[in-house]
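Data availability excerpt. The first of two example chains:
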Amino acid sequence: MKMTIVGAGAIGGMLGAHMVAAGHDITLCDADRAHIDAIRASGLTIEGPIANFTVHPTAIYDDELTGQHDCVMLAVKSHHTKMAASLIAPHLSSDGVVLTVQNGLTLDTAAQFIDPRHIVTAFINIGADVIEPGRIRQGNIAAFYVGEPLLNEVTERVNRLVDALPYAKSTTNILGFLWGKEAYGAMLYAGAVSDLSIADSLSDPRYHDLMIAIAREVLDQAPVKAEGFDGFEPDDLEGSLERLAAFNAASAKTHSGIYRDLMVRRRPTEVADLLRDLSGPLTTHIGRIIEAIERNERTCEVANLDLANAYYRAHRLAEPLHAIVHYLEAPRRAPTGPLHGYQVAIKDIIAVAGTPLGNGNPIDMTGPPSSTDAPIVATLREAGADVFATTSLLEYALGSPHPGVPEARNPVAPALVAGGSSGGSAVIVAVGAAQLALGTDTGGSVRIPAHYCNVVGFKPTYGHLPIQGITPLAPTLDHVGILARDVATTILGYQALMGSPVTHPGSRRPRLGVVRTQLATDLLDPIVAQAIHHALDLLTMAGYERIELAPSPFDRLELAFDPIVGYEAYQIHGPLLAADPQHFGEETARVLGQARSITQAQYLGAIEEKRAASVELLGVFDTIDLIVGPTSPMVAPGQNPSLDTPEGYLEGIMTRVYNLTGQPAISIPIPGSRLPVGLQLAGARGHDGEVLCWAEEIERILGES
């Protein structure tokens, strides 16, 4: 057979070399002049475990293609299809045939220049790489099918091509093979963002569900029955991973062509075709990461695959619980740092550049994107964190969801709420999509969702973390807080945000202060009571000293909270309420409207009571190290109670005290309860490191019971 191959790279060159060796008249045509020059000078060498030989075909530059040709193979990268097809079209004879041997769905692009009746399509899974100009390594022998894309039959011209091509077979469903390769190829794209081999990325249990979900996303878009090959079976994706890993482990081609384009050849990939040909969130996330690597904003590393896994888990597990507001594609961040490889979510009341500051309000959520990050978000990026999603909250963090914004549901029991107001941040950590999330805490809005969702929630000392760039609620009480899967991760996040290590208290055990009235069984839900008393008993058995505290300063601080938060919230949101009451949800507008009646004298009196009672409460740290008790007397309810209802008052009765005093406080899960229960630990102001380190030790003791 006489054939001109346009695209003499890995696949076109490998096939052409075998055809030359079999006695066919082959001309290789390529835009890579160094490659063509090397073939002209020394021939084309195929090497590797399959074959080792050199042939001397005719080799021409792309601008040297002349005359009329009866048989042309189009074997360029898919994103060069338009250029190659426009080159071929004037030189194709009236009854000529073009065989496309490419990854991707390129028929429509080629048909813009070549009558589709002249096009035969091939599917190929043989692995090959250009090692240097004039040298190609063939890694394996694999599936290679040729068929008519417009016909469900094997024609004479297909048979002629199959007879001439190495390893080729005919098929009546070539589009089915191409869609099967699209699904498999999407998994290869995902693996290529890391530095893992193909076999390792497919066999690593961390990415098992991600890979299956990516393949399924593609197969669900296939307009034909997808075909299996080389261990890939569309009806058995679970088993396909094991078979494909073994198949690729046996190949001399360890990494995909996408990876080689990114990290070896440093040239554009076919990612634009991936994003054009396929829809679906996972392939889009992968494509955006590849684009970022092409722009030198990232490098191929496992952290990118972990990011893709975070997107997958967020879509599958957090999104159905209404925890996600926006996804941030291939987020900007420093290439190294203490949070490198950590995926972090941000409560949508904290400014994140490029996305609206939503505040749990549907009007704000459709507003203009923030132009800059809040300082705390910028610090996360500088620490190497992937800030990849924003999370849902109660409207303006004031205690009620807007009726137009679904409230986050509990990952342990979806019929229950995740808690307010940082519920979305608690959920995304609880389902394992993010290792860390930021929330805000004015009266318990980090610790209460942590208590409901079985994660850790930490509110540092007031002022330790910046609140600039965050929509305020009550500035004298507003804190930024951290939600995490465990205390160790919380410590890591806090250290990164502070820019310094925490101070460890050494081996001494803290003296625990307990407020007897907080443990009264008529105050606590029975599930909470059982868990808290069990936890305190475990700590007593572990040698922790318990000291009873007088309730007086706690009671005084309780009375100061509502006037302060109400007055300050109205000063911030009252003007908008007056100008546009419909901007707010009904419950938020009602609570703000009631706060209008708080006078400045009442506010200043509450501020003075807060000051005096804080001095009294903080004085107990002369004799204790931690105040210990329930995070909330309630387990997660079915609906978030409004701030000014009896249920709303009860929910935060044990957390808001520490917003008034500014003390560091953390909620850690107590294992074993039917519904999640948190144990709250509060320390002296400024002693955040000690609180965190003791919390890690107590977490261990509770976990060993």
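And the second chain:
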Amino acid sequence: MSTAATTGPAGDTDPAGLSDEERAAVYRRRGWWRDETFLDDLHRQAQTRPHKLAIAGRRITESRTDTLDYAELSCLTDRFALALLDLGVQRGDFVAVQLPNRWEMVALMFASLRVGAVICPISPICPEEELRHRLGLTEARVCVTLPEWSGTPLAETVTKLKDELPSLAHVVVDGPAPEGALSFHDHFVATAREEHRAGELDGLALTADEPFVVLFTSGTTGESKGVLHSQNTVHSAVRGYVDAFGLGDDWVAAVSTPLVHYSGFAQGVLAGVMLGGTVAFQDIRKNEALLDLVERYGATLLYGPPATLADVAASQRAVKRDTSSLRHVVIGSAPVLAELADEVHDALGARAHSLWGMSENGPVTMTRPADPADWAAHSNGRAIDAMETRIDPPPFSASLERGDAHGIDGESDSVGRLKVRGASLALGYYRREEAFAAELGADGWFDTGDLARVDGRGGIRIIGRARDAIVRDGMVAPMTELEALIGSHPKAVEAAVVGLPSATHPGGTAICAVVVPAGGADPSLDDIRTHLRESGQGARFLPDRLELLPALPKTLTGKVRKAELRQRFSVPTV
């Protein structure tokens, strides 16, 4: 076993082996947990900086931006909370919100907190069967949705589900509502209930330790699981996130990820309100427009996955915007290649940082400003103070083959399963306690399902999912780096790497690169292999086979369904 990072002030009590009450006391003493809530943060900001911009939500197709200052957001929180009470929502009920990145989502987040309800954010592109699963599992009392999104009749779909789900009492539509549904504007927005009824909300708000949000996983191996968090498990993560970059009330974040995912929900909105900063977002994916938000609101931090940041940098090259306010560009969900880090710095004038996290923990590791300038291209960083990471050997004896361009002098190439422990760990999977317990050891270590290696500076580098590992001669393929490099080929948009049965390759496995072509001439296998060699990759894990697809099959959270690719292409080669 190798320890990639350990945390906690010297001399304090190690929380491992303590009871839940003792552990909570340690977390509070260290400042990771608190008695205050995110609703308290909102009320504090409304009192101390009422007219400071809190939220800027751009509606791309409507060519407009909705803005709320802290006083307005606090007022609408009470108005929406009373509207939820009028729908019969009680403490402990679930409120499902199926909206894109719009201001209404933010007010509903805080309104749910205000009445003691658990919010269940759901993507507008959620398929009907998965939507049925999420509404049924949580027994949501209310679902707020849209008339349609990307050609899908959401309101009609949810209203029909109301007949199947006895717990779903109300469907509320932000736009024209079908029969059997309510108008969001009429019920939530049009009536200023808070002017005379605010006292009805006294004593209802959730405490810091109660469940307050359920975030669904990608569901790559079956039905998605609902990750249940308290405000304290989220607070410890976002506190570590903002502290890692030294962020304060002058923070302005341009968020590219959906507010229904942890990164937008917590690292965006909740972190912004906690700090008293500003959060800007847009309702549809149009990466080239993100820089308009950066320029207009003086964003100091831009967050997104590698493909988004590559688009943003290219957009800046094409049409220059004022990005002088940017201090940090944080890249999550996939490895940061040196070329992307350099492009971000050259085009945007800000340093790129790498971040790793998951719905069960939020942001766990990230590179820091004090790290070497190019460190994001070599590492996913070290753990925040509230979390620990550990790398355990896999059931096979394995090391990592890396090219010289990716090596670290004097460092072991040992690869193992990444486990995490600490204050940011979720409360569990809602109504799937056995599934959560299966990943949680008696000593509090949670198995992430990822393979990683140490980075030489107290942090980690993610290699890929353990279930997708390709091993040859006891060496593990650097899956995530291979995919990022293949996806950076000029003839490729993105790529996935899977192992397929083969009678002629080592270990009976052929390495298959599944590539989405960029258009024009398709890449060849030789093109891909040459590109990898020139990037410093060794010969052992160069792809043996190439398949082209117009798009990679993905989950709602953007993860590639590799099991589907293996099934599709698993014709033994000879």
